[in-house]
Design goal:
With 466 residues, the protein is α+β, with helices and mostly antiparallel strands. The protein contains 15 helices and 18 strands. Strand 17 and strand 18 form a beta hairpin.
């Protein structure tokens, strides 16, 4: 039998651990939210606590285990699948005060950070040392490192640099019983048994609470050049990608595909100023080349694009002439809030499938979406070079039946293509019903076994993933 803690006794003991200024209760809890973009839904929780060290997190979990108190961890709260949602009986552990960059090792090219460090702050700090942490995405100004690791975040450069998993060397994690697992090594090579950190990367807070991490860095490029390209057909987009990869020899670091109607909507964020290419082309590609010779790199990109035009691979294109123009080009792709504002009852999707099948899949689901009267518009774009496509579907009403109908349209074809219902956003609450579309029953059983082994009383982010 589960005995939830009596509020006063439980909160008094939390106060002993954290100090009075690091606990929110009552009305102050409801003034917060469970997601950075869903501010009209008050947070429902027993309390919110703000630990400032791994030891405090451990003591919190020891107390929670004693009282059978479920917890949900809050980082930057930018997830798209309900991983930070609560039911009201949970204790929320916010990592926002564990926000220190503890060490930048320029020799080993590593950085030691606490879980609450904002991704953009990390980018800025290591850049001052001539280094780069290459994982980036639109929510970098809010997303925290702990959450990024817990969801194995992807983003805009995955095809060149890989997912977050590729850049984690060591982790410090607190288990459900308060045990601290600390392995903060700076080693790229360490084959001394099982790689335990992989149990927590992508686990969405269900296996343990990430408190600190050692991340791998790299020497940053000295130049970046961006172009927007128009292409006639999807097969030519694929040929253009292969041509660019072969010609630029590892310096192609961005290749974002935007469908025609989505581009028309996205450029609205520029308010008519600095629009790269006119509307009407079937496909638009945002290309980025990084390099080491600023004066030559732009010329190289222009020459390569001329050759692509001569080969009939592209219809039109323009290269950014300044850093400001380059930022505007990327804003078109990154400022997704602009197109979300055009939607009502919007649903967001993040799928992956083989590059060769993307166009066939999009045509199939488009035909089905067009037959649903309540779907008024939808937007298609994504990280085509790594097979990841995003969709935003806008509807005139928000019934559960319609939401399920749209989910089925998007997810049902994916097993036939060898695809995944989640390329980078995770499963959380919103996708767990469809997990079997991407994972076998044997895989799901093993996941549950690992969960029950590390968290036998189901305290950590209960109800998420499965």
């Amino acid at each position: 039998m589960i005995n939830l803690p009596k509020n006063k006794e439980f909160l008094d003991r939390l106060e002993l651990i954290l100090g009075k200024g690091n606990i929110l209760t009552g009305k102050t809890v409801s003034e917060r939210s469970h997601h950075i973009w869903i501010l009209d839904q008050p947070l429902q929780a027993r309390a919110v606590v703000f630990p400032q060290s791994t030891q405090e997190v451990s003591e919190i979990m020891i107390l929670c285990k004693e009282h059978h108190q479920p917890i949900v961890v809050h980082g930057g709260m930018t997830n798209m699948v309900g991983s930070t949602e609560t039911q009201g009986n949970e204790l929320v552990i916010s990592m926002e005060k564990m926000n220190r960059i503890l060490d930048i090792d320029t020799v080993s090219k590593t950085v030691l950070v606490e879980a609450g460090v904002i991704l953009e702050h990390l980018h800025q700090s290591v850049e001052l040392e001539g280094l780069m942490f290459p994982v980036t995405y639109g929510a970098k100004g809010s997303a925290q490192i702990g959450g990024m690791i817990a969801t194995n975040a992807g983003g805009l450069r995955v095809f060149r640099y890989g997912m977050t998993r590729n850049w984690v060397l060591g982790l410090e994690v607190v288990l459900a019983d308060g045990t601290i697992i600390s392995s903060l090594k700076k080693l790229v090579k360490d084959n001394s048994g099982l790689d335990l950190k992989q149990l927590f990367i992508g686990s969405e807070g269900t296996m343990g609470i990430i408190t600190r991490a050692v991340l791998k860095l790299m020497v940053g490029p000295k130049s970046r050049n961006t172009a927007v390209i128009a292409v006639a057909t999807y097969s030519q987009v694929v040929s253009f990608l292969h041509f660019m990869e072969g010609t630029l020899a590892g310096t192609l670091t961005g290749f974002e595909l935007i469908w025609k109607d989505t581009y028309t909507a996205m450029i609205g964020v520029l308010k008519g100023k600095g629009v790269p290419l006119p509307v009407g082309y079937p496909f638009y590609v945002l290309v980025e080349k990084s390099g080491t010779e600023p004066e030559k790199d732009r010329e190289t990109l222009e020459n390569v694009l001329v050759k692509a035009f001569e080969k009939g691979l592209i219809l039109d294109g323009t290269v950014a002439r300044s850093e400001l123009e380059q930022q505007l080009f990327w804003r078109i792709r990154e400022d997704v809030d602009h197109i979300v504002a055009m939607c009502t009852h919007d649903q967001h999707f993040d799928v992956s499938l083989p590059i060769s099948q993307i166009d066939v899949y999009i045509l199939e689901i488009s035909e089905k979406l067009n037959l649903v009267p309540e779907v008024d518009r939808y937007f298609v774009y994504g990280h085509m070079a790594d097979g990841n496509i995003h969709l935003i579907v806008s509807k005139t009403e928000g019934s559960a039946e319609l939401k399920e109908q749209v989910n089925r349209i998007i997810y049902s074809p994916l097993p036939g293509f060898g695809g995944s219902i989640s390329a980078e956003h995770g499963i959380g609450v919103h996708k767990k019903k469809y997990l079997s579309y991407s994972r076998s029953s044997e895989e799901i059983i093993l996941m549950k076994l690992l969960k029950s082994t590390l968290d036998p009383t189901n305290l950590l982010n209960p109800g998420k993933i499965f």
